[in-house]
Design goal:
By secondary structure, the protein is of the alpha/beta class. The protein has a single domain, classed as NADP-dependent oxidoreductase domain (TIM Barrel), CATH 3.20.20. The chain has 13 helices and ten strands. Strands 3-4-5-6-7-8-9-10 form an eight-stranded parallel β-sheet. Helix 4 packs parallel to helix 12 and helix 10 packs across helix 11.
Length: 322
């Protein structure tokens, strides 16, 4: 912008291949018993939080971003384990792009979804500079090859282009959909005016989502883009739902106080707020198994009217508390 389960590939072979030390392996094992561990009952309870696309497709309300995965922040085996854990806890949507680490994010994700593709709602993106000629089809084929799959559940235009190009973009997406390469398509970082223009072109109304930044401390989309999407029965996909790298919410005192009443982390409260309406999908990113477990708790949190009032006062929207 804009990434968990537990089926593992031979752990010892992975450790040897990636040079994981004994302390690193110990940390991975320890994390399974740390944080707030969700058992089978909790996992089945959280898996029910979903959002409906305009065509009736059911989409998980909480997914996983991946813009920094595969780039060396954590050992690859740890990041893969984080994704697997998230999947096991109901975060079965995985969002990626061919330009994340020049494809390394998609390649890492391919190891995670192998053998369980039918459980995953897989999202990738095409860049504005890839649109000419048959560029959309070529970019999609490259992503499919890196991901080791023959279809995407959702394919997004990563950022806006001039509205004069919308009809060509939509036609390219529709060709991929007809061919079975993608099941749906959408856009990212569009404002309400651009969405209006998109809907004016043939098949523009088939857009499944608009992926935009949205968090307690970034509520700029509420008056226009979020409202427009709600009016058109289109879910919003929120990237950076915890505030983004340079403005993280997890240390906020108000969030910590509300988290204490729910016996969860501040991150879980922040994510529960983002998905509170039933029309927003949040895609937090984490290469840490412990953080993924904390995030997944958001699926089982019911914020009270008092919680929401407190958060509105602490994080007023663009026109004051809403």
């Amino acid at each position: 912008m804009i990434k968990h389960l537990l089926s593992r590939r031979q752990f010892n072979a992975s450790c040897a291949a990636f040079g994981l030390s004994l302390p690193t392996m110990s940390a991975m094992v320890a994390v399974k018993g740390s944080a707030r561990v969700l058992g089978t009952g909790a996992a089945s309870k959280t898996a029910g939080r979903t959002v409906k696309a305009p065509d009736g497709t059911t989409i998980p309300a909480l997914g996983q971003g991946s813009s920094h995965l595969g780039l060396g922040r954590h050992p690859p085996a740890v990041e893969e384990e984080a994704l697997r854990i998230g999947i096991s806890l109901g975060m079965t949507l995985i969002d990626t792009s061919g330009n994340y680490g020049n494809g390394r994010s998609e390649e890492l994700i391919s190891h995670v979804i192998a053998g369980q593709r039918d459980r995953i709602f897989l999202v990738s993106k095409v860049e504005p500079n890839q649109l000419s000629g048959d560029g959309i089809a070529r970019a999609c084929e490259a992503s499919l090859a890196r991901l080791g799959t023959d279809y995407l559940d959702l394919y997004l235009l990563h950022s806006p282009v001039p509205s004069t190009q919308f009809s060509g973009v939509v036609a390219g997406f529709e060709q991929l959909r007809t061919a079975g390469k993608i099941r749906a398509w959408g856009v990212s970082n569009f404002n309400s005016g651009q969405m209006e223009d998109l809907f004016r072109v043939p098949d523009g109304h088939r857009c499944a989502t608009n992926q935009v930044p949205y968090s307690l401390n970034y509520r700029h989309i509420e008056p226009a883009a979020l409202s427009w999407c709600k009016q058109h029965n289109m879910p919003v996909m929120a990237y950076s739902p915890l505030g983004g790298d340079n403005n993280l919410l997890v240390g906020d005192r108000t969030l910590a106080q509300i988290a204490a009443t729910h016996d969860c982390s501040a991150a879980a409260v922040a994510l529960a707020w983002v998905i509170r309406s039933g029309n927003v999908i949040a895609i937090p990113e984490s290469g840490s198994p412990a953080h993924v477990k904390e995030n997944a708790v958001a699926l089982s949190i019911a914020l009270t009217p008092r919680d929401l009032q407190t958060l509105d006062a602490a994080f007023p929207g663009p026109f004051g508390a809403t």
